[in-house]
Design the sequence.
């Protein structure tokens, strides 16, 4: 069986050992970066490369629902940061005791420090009202947009660019600030830039916020809850 | 400036030229596979590798909300296929004239042919009611799950495994079939297996369903709609 797979892989996947290593390296060494941004500019050419990687994610019905708002203006960043701070003050209150104390110590965004902020949006109306494959699960356009974000995140890691996903905003306020039309969804607000370091493990894991779940606990066979498959 | 970036990249990103090529190859040569599955089995070891790649996506508040239901039983696949066919008959009717004719010719899933089906779910209740970073945008747990799917999709491409995302189901019916608890969301239903070929471009692009949007049309600066930044 191994021999069969070996043959198939060389004939079809066309990935050398080193190429595969690059792919897995991006997957395992990608981090959500908050506190390690450097001010060094990211070139337009490299930014375009990252956006093109996002644009080559699959999308439901090939609708390509995403747009990218590139933010470099300190004024706009400041407004977004204010919006974050407002939402974050409220968010901290839901945690109790040690968790709240730990929460207050965590740096959760690099909006002002990162040279580039990027809002990735989803336009559910793109390419007409009917989208192939979106008839029963309307959210698949947003799902596609998230796949685009992950492509960008991995490509960025390969280029030594850190990315941090900031999700602590009132979406309505973010839409107002960035003049996003009513029907468009701001799916991800990302901070991008060169970094001092990529941490060896996720920051929240290192900080003791939550542990990594063993993979085996997450796998079922045939139906939810069934563990006896192989 | 190029020199600065060159230095930074070698010091921090640690990706060789060939490793980067592997990463971009996965991003650009990944396909949504429907009609090209081979019956050859995928080893448990390789499947685990793909699931572990998914498990190393970032997640909001490190909540790791995903679970994986691995489906190999022909009976379960048959039930899911019936569910697809029911939803697809309804979906075809929303398109008119040439689009409907083209739709009817497209193969949209490989449920029975693919040796492995995989349902990737999101449990919004995992790790307690309060999730760091999910206070204002509740859907961020589902967004994280989509990032996990993209990791798996790219890793699979590197291994010569095709993946097809089937989204034409009534979610309630799929949940019943797979015995998924009420509060858990079946985000993605994927078909996995070795393939005869990976098409050079997305199948819907080749079929003339929709064209690729020029990247430039999707980029704004500072605010939605602003094209004059750089």
Sequence:
């Amino acid at each position: 069986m191994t021999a069969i797979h070996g043959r198939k892989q060389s004939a079809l996947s066309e990935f050398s050992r080193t190429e595969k290593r690059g792919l897995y390296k991006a997957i395992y060494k990608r981090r959500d970066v908050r506190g390690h941004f450097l001010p060094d500019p990211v070139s337009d050419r490299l930014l375009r490369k990252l956006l093109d990687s996002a644009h080559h994610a699959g999308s439901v019905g090939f609708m390509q629902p995403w747009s990218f708002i590139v933010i470099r203006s300190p004024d706009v960043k400041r407004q977004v940061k204010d919006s974050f701070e407002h939402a974050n003050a409220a968010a901290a209150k839901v945690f109790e005791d040690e968790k709240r104390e730990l929460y207050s110590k965590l740096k959760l965004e690099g909006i002002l420090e990162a040279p580039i902020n990027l809002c990735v949006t989803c336009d559910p109306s793109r390419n007409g009202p009917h989208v192939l494959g979106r008839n029963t699960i309307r959210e698949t356009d947003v799902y596609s947009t998230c796949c685009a974000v992950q492509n960008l995140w991995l490509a960025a890691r390969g280029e030594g660019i850190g990315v941090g996903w900031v999700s602590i905003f009132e979406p309505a306020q973010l839409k107002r600030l960035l003049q996003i039309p009513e029907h468009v969804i701001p799916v991800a607000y990302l901070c991008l830039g060169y970094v001092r370091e990529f941490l060896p493990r996720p920051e929240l894991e290192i900080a003791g916020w939550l542990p990594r779940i063993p993979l085996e606990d997450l796998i079922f066979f045939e139906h939810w809850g069934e563990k006896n498959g192989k």
Notes: Residues 1-11 of chain B have pLDDT under 50 and may be disordered.
